[in-house]
């Protein structure tokens, strides 16, 4: 977007654009003033100024001391609104598998000094042969296809769990059992012994299909609504530089025009996943009737059943083809929509569901519901497919990592497969938790599937519940190791802390507290190891549960009956405890999520992982919570482009924690002409410590080095007591100084002094602006920027920003 040409009259002002981190805050706290005014934006995300600074561009004499005009960008409502947002936490497996898409290793060799980042699309770092380029591009595409298939399996798993609860446990088993139906009067009209119109199994299944179909419809509605609000936000630049000329420089991935514009892909995936969910419901309803007709005979009904199942199989093939066919388009803004897919695929699947419902409702007087629906086969196939896909994903990731190895990349490039495995485990816990709790409620006091007239979920879900206690016991070992290691590290750091505060009188309690804070902050760096252990153990135990269910064909408590008493008792205890834990875990998860959006302290606790997860666009799963960065990054980039273009002034964008990631992403999106007038100040930043290690293709050494070269000046502040932020490890290059400041002291002083008569707190991740170094480094950055161009002459009318500010609401 070409900036407006400023009119030369008076020296221009400087602007500091503040971006807060996770957990949210208020503009009053960010600007340290109770009277603020909204300059531009809406109730969801907006930019605020102090009321006295509302028309700062017209009053440059107030800023002759070099102070910048502060303004705050508040984006917390993009992720943490009212309590109903807790419902998004039910879609956590979808969010986690979407993370796996972005965790792939870089596609090529590690860029050297002065080279661009090779991320697998477009020009890479240095020359390479055509076959090598095709191989790397093929690896990137294959990685994306595998992650999208894992995501599709999670949609099928969630729908299958809803079908298990509504169709199998309720309509098939409970309504078909005289004891269960008698105890629940609301099932009386469907009870098999009542002989009513709804008493036939097929009609009960057809009626119960409303529940999973409504769930799929709700997911489609939420995805479509958020797609219109988030994916449709256009970035400020297309293929044009700031002066109106084509921008042909090599761009890292986050700087490409279409990176924050996933409109086409999300619409395509939404249609495919909606169709997959609807087809799953249709298969559950129509498949049971078709199996009965094949055993009972009847030429017409049997032929209709075969035709319906063939149509469902064809629909499944089309869905898989749509998911695999197209990935993200980032090199340009892709405004097209695959309307044939978006409109026809869900419609065709709904038509098949209606046909399946009508076919199941066909009168079959001799049909009786006994045992369970064939859920074991369904869940076993899903589990096996997920395991195979995760292993294939691991093989591709290892191959890519070997081409561009880096010591800081987590788990040797296996971070994505590990997280994909955790997403599958979360999906299994949530689906199994719902099924186990409903079965426990319907079956009375007995453990699901073990009573005299058992009503229980598929055998596989009981086996998966049984391995949860084993998994928790295994995790006690690394947890104990971490506790001991942290204590030893704190003891080792004690003399280091006292040496840093040379000349102070040692205080054992004070030293221990500072050293302990540093040691606990270092636990963040052990997260990859814990994730790898949990993921590997989950894969092995899940495989054992699958084999156990296939071989035994019954729940663990019965599978070991007749064996050694100790083994039988242990199996029964594991099944009972696991059934309770998986149901309790699901309920705890929902209540915890609800509390997180009502209690600020709880929101801060989980806000880190949540904001990391929803930072990334929906590239793998369209039902994941929406990406707030697709609104926030264009907001920031538009503001920087418009303000510098209109005023010709200097601008420093100042980002804390997650705000530093948004700031860096916005700077990447700026035209080159605008980037020359922008400085970047980050503090408490996870750019390298978390994002660089977990997302090396997008924030690894190559992309961050490219950002260092492109932005005019950049400074990063960090503390050793910070559990989130850290150095970005970018050395001096091309005449530019090192990005990282030396570690800030925390606390600022060790003991009591005349300037600090009371003990100073250990700040950790917060209050970086309270350190005197902050203002000093901000001034240095502004001094290094090119001199501000002259401002337009004062006039009677208001500027565009001032007009918006005067229309905003004062919050003070």
TrEMBL record:
Keywords: Membrane, Transmembrane, Transmembrane helix. The chain crosses the membrane at residues 142-162, 205-222, 271-292, 304-324, 340-362, 377-398, 410-435, 463-484, 529-553, 573-593. Residues 111-127 have a biased composition (Gly residues). The keyword Ribonucleoprotein does not apply. Residues 107-136, 785-812 are annotated as: Disordered. Residues 797-812 have a biased composition (Polar residues). The keyword Translocase does not apply. It comes from the Bacteria. This is Lipase family protein. It comes from Streptomyces ficellus.
């Amino acid at each position: 977007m070409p900036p407006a040409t400023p009119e030369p009259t008076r020296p221009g002002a400087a602007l500091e654009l503040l971006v807060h981190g996770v957990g949210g805050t208020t503009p009053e706290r960010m600007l340290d003033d109770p009277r603020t005014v909204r300059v531009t934006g809406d109730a969801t995300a907006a930019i605020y100024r102090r009321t006295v600074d509302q028309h700062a561009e017209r009053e440059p004499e107030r800023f002759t001391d070099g102070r910048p005009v502060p303004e705050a960008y508040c984006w917390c409502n993009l992720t943490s609104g009212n309590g109903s947002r807790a419902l998004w936490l039910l879609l956590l497996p979808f969010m986690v598998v979407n993370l796996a898409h972005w965790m792939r290793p870089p596609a090529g060799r590690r860029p050297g000094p002065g080279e661009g980042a090779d991320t697998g699309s477009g020009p890479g770092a240095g020359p390479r042969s055509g076959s090598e380029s095709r191989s790397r591009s093929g690896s990137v595409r294959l990685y994306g296809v595998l992650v999208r298939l894992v995501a599709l399996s999670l949609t099928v798993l969630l729908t299958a769990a809803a079908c298990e609860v509504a169709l199998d446990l309720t309509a098939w088993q409970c309504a078909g059992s005289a004891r269960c139906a008698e105890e629940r009067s609301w099932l009386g009209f469907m009870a098999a012994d009542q002989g009513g119109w709804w008493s036939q199994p097929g009609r009960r299944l057809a009626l119960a299909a409303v529940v999973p179909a409504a769930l799929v419809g709700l997911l489609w509605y939420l995805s479509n609504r958020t797609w219109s609000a988030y994916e449709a936000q256009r970035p400020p630049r297309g293929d044009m530089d700031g002066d109106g000329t084509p921008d042909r420089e090599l761009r890292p991935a986050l700087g490409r025009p279409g990176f924050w514009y996933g409109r086409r892909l999300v619409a395509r995936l939404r249609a495919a996943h909606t169709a997959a969910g609807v087809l799953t419901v249709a298969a559950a309803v129509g498949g049971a009737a078709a199996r009965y007709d094949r055993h009972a005979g009847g030429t017409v009904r049997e032929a209709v059943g075969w035709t319906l199942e063939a149509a469902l199989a064809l629909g499944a093939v089309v869905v898989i083809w749509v998911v695999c066919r197209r990935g993200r388009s980032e090199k340009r803004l892709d405004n097209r929509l695959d309307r044939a897919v978006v409109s026809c695929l869900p419609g065709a699947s709904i038509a098949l569901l209606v046909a399946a419902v009508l076919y199941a409702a066909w009168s079959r007087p001799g049909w009786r519901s006994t045992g369970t629906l064939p859920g074991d086969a369904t869940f076993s196939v899903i589990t096996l497919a997920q395991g195979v896909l995760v292993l294939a994903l691991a093989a591709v990731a290892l191959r890519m990592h070997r081409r561009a190895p880096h010591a800081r990349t987590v788990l040797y490039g296996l971070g994505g497969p590990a997280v994909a495995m955790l997403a599958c485990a979360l999906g299994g816990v949530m689906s199994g938790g719902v099924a186990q709790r409903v079965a426990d409620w319907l079956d009375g006091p007995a453990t699901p599937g073990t009573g005299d007239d058992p009503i229980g979920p598929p055998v596989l879900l009981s086996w998966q519940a049984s391995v949860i206690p084993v998994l928790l016991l295994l995790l006690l070992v690394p947890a104990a190791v971490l506790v001991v290691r942290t204590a030893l590290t704190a003891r080792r750091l004690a003399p280091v802390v006292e040496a840093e505060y040379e000349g102070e009188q040692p205080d054992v309690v004070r030293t221990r507290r500072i050293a302990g804070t540093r040691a606990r902050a270092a636990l963040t760096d052990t997260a990859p190891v814990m994730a790898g252990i949990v993921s590997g153990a989950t894969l092995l135990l899940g495989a054992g549960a699958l084999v156990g269910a296939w071989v035994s064909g019954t729940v663990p408590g019965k599978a070991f009956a007749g064996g050694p008493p100790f083994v039988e008792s242990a199996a029964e205890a594991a099944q009972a405890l696991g059934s309770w834990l998986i149901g309790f875990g699901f309920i705890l998860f929902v209540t915890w999520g609800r509390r997180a959006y009502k209690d600020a302290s709880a929101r801060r606790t989980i806000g880190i992982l949540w904001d990391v997860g929803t930072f990334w666009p929906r590239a793998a799963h369209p039902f994941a919570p929406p990406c707030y960065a697709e609104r926030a990054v264009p907001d920031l980039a538009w503001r920087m482009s418009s303000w510098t273009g209109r005023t010709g002034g200097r601008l420093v964008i100042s980002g804390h924690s997650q705000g530093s990631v948004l700031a860096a992403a916005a700077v990447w999106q700026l035209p080159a002409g605008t980037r020359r007038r922008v400085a970047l100040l980050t503090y408490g930043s996870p750019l390298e410590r978390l994002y660089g290690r977990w997302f090396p293709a997008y924030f690894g050494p190559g992309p961050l080095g490219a950002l260092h070269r492109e932005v005019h000046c950049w400074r990063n502040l960090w503390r050793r007591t910070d559990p989130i932020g850290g150095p970005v490890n970018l050395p001096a290059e091309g005449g530019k100084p090192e990005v990282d400041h030396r570690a800030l002291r925390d606390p600022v002083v060790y003991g009591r002094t005349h300037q600090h008569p009371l003990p100073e707190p250990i700040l950790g991740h917060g209050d970086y602006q309270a350190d005197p170094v902050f203002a000093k480094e901000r001034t240095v950055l502004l001094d290094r920027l090119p001199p501000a161009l002259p401002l337009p002459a004062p006039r009677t009318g208001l500027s565009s920003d001032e007009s918006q500010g005067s229309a905003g609401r004062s919050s003070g």
